[in-house]
Amino acid sequence: MFAIGRLFGSFLVAGLLAGAGLAQDSTMETRLGDEGSESPAATLEQMDWLVGQWVGDGIGGAPAMESWLPPSGGTMVGTFVQQNEDGGIQFTEHLYLMEEEGTLVLRLKHFNADLTGWEEKDGMLTFRLVAMEECAAYFHALTLRCADSDAPGEGLVAAVRMQSGNELLFSFEAM
To answer: Which one of 63, 82, 120, 158 has the fewest CB atoms closer than 10 angstroms to its CB?
Structure first.
């Protein structure tokens, strides 16, 4: 199982880091930023709708959970848990949504079920903000948005663009 998780992890990480050469597709949840373009102004106050615990179907229909704490010291801390079909942990993510230079940046690290990391010891994935809308934050190849902008706090959609050009889409409900 460890080897399968590591192989899957390598594919996922490679997919997250790729994407600069992929064309924008209006039918996709994720957006891609042009290299060298500036991120829009944004603050953590605009992300208050994200705070809470979210549950839904993850990869392959297996259960997944995401949690976000209120801002503290210019950072929102989040966790993501992807379970396997047997209900055990397949992998987790530790996420930091941070204010930086007048905008937002999302950083994350992946961990196997045994807490071994996917990224190098000091490494992490960094997603820069591409666009900000009411109840939605679009980072390069990663989206977090309300399922219904008229009902923030009821549902969350998270999407990640893979190297293949496909997306992993997660639909969560408030816990």
So the answer is: 120
